[in-house]
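User: Predict the structure for this protein chain, please.
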Amino acid sequence: VQSMSRKGNCWDNAPMESFFGILKTESFYQEGALSVAELTKVIDDYIHYYNHERISLNLKKLSPVGYRTQLEKAV
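Assistant: Here is the predicted structure, written as structure tokens:
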């Protein structure tokens, strides 16, 4: 079943695939075997870390939230 109304391109899923690859590498691969509740907590904690604390060189060494805040102040 097609999930999009237009032809899918190879780069459509690239940002999410990149995020999930980073999530797996930096977070729960290091944790070992987890229950569903523990995995949910690890993922929630990592998403908060990714958005609020983890710096990105592509975002001028700011977190995504910090970069967005800086852009809002500039306008």
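Helices lie at 14-31, 36-52, 64-74.
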